[in-house]
Amino acid sequence: MYELMVRRDFVAQHYLTVPNCGPENEWHSHHFEVEVLLEGPSLNDNGYLVDIVEVETALDGLVDRYRDATLNDLPEFEGLNPSIEHFSRLFCTALEEQLDTDGLDTTVKIWEDEDAWASYSA
Q1: Cβ-based neighbour number of residue 87 at 10 Å
Q2: What is the pLDDT of residues 8-33, one digit of tens each?
Q3: CA 30, chain centre distance (Å)
Q4: Comparing C-alpha atoms, which of 120, 114, 121 is closest to residue 30?
Q5: Cα–Cα distance for residue pair 79/111, rounded to 1 Å
Q6: I need a surface site. Which of 53, 54, 75, 106 has the fewest CB within 10 A?
Q7: What SS3 state is found at 122?
C-alpha cells in the first residue's frame, strides 16, 4: 500500500454548543494542524499515488477558508457542534470533492493542540 501525507497548520476559532463544556463553551482559538493521508495499492502512469501539487493546492484552499474564521459562523457547521470530529469529516468531504480520489482511502486528521486530535476516513 502506498501512502502520501501533506500537512498544514492554521489558527481558527470556535465555541462548543453543547452544555457543560466549561471554557470550551466560550469563544476561543486553536492552532489547528491538519494532516491529509491518501492511501492506495498502485501508482498512476507518472509514478504517483496522486499528484502532490494537486493535493497541496486543494489543501491550501481549504486552509485559507478556515484560517482566522469562527467555525460556528460557517454554513457547513450550521446546526452542528463545531467539534474536531465534525471538522475532520467536513474537511475530508470538501477535500475529496476537489481531488480525484477514486480507488484511494482518504483520512483527514485535525489536531487542536499537541495532545488532542480527531480524524475521519473516507
Answers
A1: 25
A2: 999 999 999 999 989 999 999 999 99
A3: 14
A4: 114
A5: 22
A6: 75
A7: coil
Inter-residue contact 49 to 104 (CB < 8 Å): yes
Provide the whole-model pTM: 0.94
- In total, the chain counts a number of residues equal to 122
Task: Judge whether 30 and 83 are in contact, CB under 8 Å.
Answer: no
Report CA torsion sign: 86, 92, 97, 98.
Answer: positive
Q: How far is residue 48's CA from residue 17's CA, in Å, rounded to a whole number?
A: 42
CA dihedral in degrees (89, 74, 24, 27; nearest 10)? 160
Buried b (16+ CB within 10 A) or exposed e, 1-16: eeebebebebebbbbb
DSSP letter at 70 equals B
Which residue matches cell numbers 471538522?
Answer: 87
pLDDT digits (tens, 9 = 90+) for 38-91: 999 999 999 999 999 999 999 999 999 999 999 999 999 999 999 999 999 999
